[in-house]
Specification:
Blueprint: H1 3-23, H2 28-31, H3 39-69
Helix pairs in contact: 1-3
């Protein structure tokens, strides 16, 4: 996995979490507080999903580029 894939997944996840807290402050705002036990799961769950799809996308792009060069 390239470092760019990891960085993009991290940035996208941060944007998703911030947008969720802004759009649904009553539900997700309480989950994002420091004293809450699910604050890490609130970030890590979406992060691993986005990271998985980013990794699969990276593999697909590299495979397509390799075929074009050959």
């Amino acid at each position: 996995m390239k470092w760019v894939t990891f960085a993009i997944a991290f940035i996208v996840t941060v944007c998703i979490v911030i947008a969720g807290v802004i759009l649904y402050p009553d539900i997700l705002g309480a989950a994002a507080t420091a004293g809450n036990e699910i604050v890490f799961a609130f970030f890590l769950g979406p992060f691993f999903v986005v990271l998985f799809f980013s990794w699969m996308g990276e593999k697909l792009v590299l495979k397509v580029l390799k075929k074009k060069q050959a």
